[in-house]
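Example 3.2
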Amino acid sequence: MTGYQAPIPPFGEPHPAAPQDRVRTAPRPTPTVPPATTSRQHVVLPRRKSVLLAGTLALFLGPVGLAYASLPGAAITAALVLFVGLPVALVFPPWMYVAALLVTPVCVVWGVSAALAHNMGRQALLLTARAPRPAPRAPRHSPVQIP
């Protein structure tokens, strides 16, 4: 004998399937919906700007370094240097150093103050995001009732 064979059922009766032949379907997982939370909200905060880096870049690079802290400030000071400082320096070359000595402190002060203002605005945004929201008020008047 080579192995066990199940007995053949009589004619007309269904053949019982072996346990390993049955197809079992796993129950489908029910999707879970996370509960609605009103107390949490996602706030995207801008990155903090380094005040020391802003001042150093503005000191050594002038309006180009100011672009780290304030793009409008960089555009304004670059326009001043280009349209006022360059023509004066072309007519009176020694004045080029005077223009550089005047623009550099302006860029440093503007860069440091812009970085500080950016960080303070970021902190204010963070504090307002954490503040609890007041509960909604009930209406002061009763709704109109139709008879």
